[in-house]
Amino acid sequence: MTEAAKDLPDVGPETAARNLWRQRDFLLLWSGQTVSETGSAVTQVALPLLAVVALKASTFQVGLLTAATTLAFAVIALPAGAMVDGAAKRSVMIVCDVLRLLVVGSVPVAAAFGVLTMAQLYVVAVVAGVCSVFFDVSYQSYVPSLIRADHLMSANGKLGTTQAFAQLGGPGLGGGLVGLFGAAGAMTADAVSYAISVLSILGIKTREDPPPARPADETLRRRIAAGLTFVFGHSILRRVVACTGTANLFGGMTSALAMVFLIRVLHVRPALTGLIMAGAAIGGIAGAAFAGRLAKKIGSARIIWVSMLVFSAPQVIAAAAWRGWGVLLFPLGWGITGFSGMVYNVAQVSYRQSVTPPELMGRMNAAVRWVVWGTLPIGGVLGGLLGTLIGVRPALWLAFIGAWAAGWFVFFSPLRHMRDVPRPAPASAPVVTS
Questions:
Q1: Dihedral, 324, 330, 336, 341 alpha carbons, nearest 10
Q2: HSE-CB for 143 with a 13 A CA cutoff
Q3: Residue 243 clears pLDDT 90, i.e. is over it
Q4: What is the Cα–Cα distance from 346 to 343, expressed in whole angstroms?
Q5: Which backbone phi and psi does 109 adopt, to 5 degrees?
Q6: Which whole number is the average pLDDT over 374-395?
Q7: Separation between Cα atoms, residue 344 and residue 403, nearest integer Å
Q8: Interval 27-43: pLDDT, tens
Q9: 78 with 198: CB under 8 angstroms?
Q10: Of 111-115, 200-204, 208-212, 356-360, the least confident
């Protein structure tokens, strides 16, 4: 935590929310990420559409492409966390955005010259995924250096609103851009969004504290082990990881199957798929907007399992959608997924940031992401396989039910007996795992 943040007086949650609107550096970070997340949401629509429509990819190939976008989290997340803890996180974020600008921007260029292939899409997905690993680990570790712990729930709610807003506006914008410029041309918007993100980060004046000096005999393996030991030695964190990882496994299946389901089962026109996905994101915006209030009413600890087992239960109706007006069941169920998932994410990320000492923040985030994002490519491949073997709709039913059932991991944990997340211990206090 920066010295500026340390000097702030203790405030209540409502005052904390107001203070964030007056913190220039947080607003810069937030606004830049709003644009970047929207651009990424355009690519989420354009990339599979490019594969399905322009390159005539099979269901299995689309599953592999979905898996490739998150493969890096399974492969390099752990060393990335150790590296981020020993580096200036702001600089890492800038470098990652510049690299993503270049690699995503290569797609419309290749398409313009008629040389775009599935092989290039796989490479773009993997390279952009590597950059996303380093950026996301740095990003979640950077936020606590800008603000007080009192502000974390409010800040994560606002950042969650950004993600949900991107899922609302991005797919709709993506669908419109696909209709106007084609799927490859639409990805230009994502490349431009990374440039805007770089400018916003460069404008931040607050400087994070320098990373602590690393002992000369501390190897990369030992630093990675320290992060894993902290996460999996903590009785609540390891169950949060199990819940999120399982939910993402089945979420990877739904991501791989969703576009195929809309186009080939429900016969939705490609230009309209973005609008359907955008309508579903309203749930995510509502979840981010109400996460703080719900946590206050239900309990900031209790809301973690309530969001998974209670709020997300009706999401399965998306798999029951049919052609015609029945297609509306898909965005309705997807919206319930967005609402419950956003409430859960705001709560569990705030909990993780509250219980983790600053010197372990990067490794904690990396260890968690190694598991919870590492299951996404497995889910993507599994979705493609099951969609081919048993049909797209039955595989989608299985995916939604599995994502809901993941909530039992956090229900059968000490969270069940807690109402609220305890206040974080002072930075100088010894780390004690449960």
A1: -160
A2: 28
A3: yes
A4: 5
A5: -65, -45
A6: 88
A7: 13
A8: 888 888 888 888 887 88
A9: no
A10: 208-212
R_g (Cα) of the chain, nearest Å = 21
- Report field, pTM of the whole predicted structure over 0.85: no
Start-to-end C-alpha separation, the chain: 24
Q: What residue has token string 């082990």?
A: 225
pLDDT at residue 10 tops 70? no
Structure tokens at 281: 């994101």
Q: Whose structure tokens read 């409010």?
A: 154
Q: Do 1 and 209 contact (CB within 8 A), yes or no?
A: yes
pLDDT digits (tens, 9 = 90+) for 303-329: 999 999 999 999 899 889 888 888 888
Maximum Cα–Cα distance across the chain: 65
